Write the structure tokens for this entry.
Amino acid sequence: RKPMLRAVFRAADAAPFDGTAMGCRILAAVGAYGFAGEVPVWRGDDFLLAGAGDAALFCGEAKDPGEVESFLCFLGSRVLVSTGQTFGFSVLETGALMCLRAPLSFPVPEGETPCFLEQAPKPEDPPLSALYALLSESEDETLHFSAPPYDAFLLDTSRRLRRGTRVGAALRGPDGAFSACVFADISPKSLFLFSGAVAPKKRGRGRFAGLLAALSARVARESCFLFCVEPLCRYYTALGFQRAGSFFFLDPKKKADGFA
């Protein structure tokens, strides 16, 4: 019998999954870290699976979920991220998958200037430490938003920026302080917004909408994706996003029925 899973060593073999949220995340990861090394990738007829540190990323739909489930147990990942199948695993977190396929046209507040972190560094680039401080200041348990560990964020973001698979944007005020920031992973066709924040004392003036519009104009892609909790769906819908499904953070070592 033809094996359902086969290792992927070329971007061309993963390219058909671009244009999806998880496809974008996988392509951005291998663009930064390479195939078969820190981010091994496997493909089935209708799905893509990648190991990225403690997490596994799943894209598509497996015709034989049992075989994928067995392979995930072998892989040993602590978390499986999926936007479709759950394989009967225990759900750690779930929420909305939002998608935007049209340009945004929101202005930034007067006196504030968008600036960008891209592959080619510039003297005026906002320091990652300052943007991380903004993310930390904006942590909110009710919205399941928290900043990643600082060292991991710094090393991972620096590498992805150098490889051109991540971009950052921020709003700088007249005093030089940053009021909002956002980070996104990028693939040839897609943009995945994975973290962003507005300073708590500066919310309510359209800063985040204006920053997203500036970023989407700077890094034009066919699709823009993000994950959000249910209470934020109305906000992103007002910006022009549409719900495209759900995301799941799953425990691949625990079944939903309580059996391992």
About this structure: The helical segments are 11-14, 21-33, 65-75, 128-137, 150-163, 207-218, 233-239. The two ends are 28 Å apart (CA to CA). DSSP finds seven helices and twelve strands in the chain.
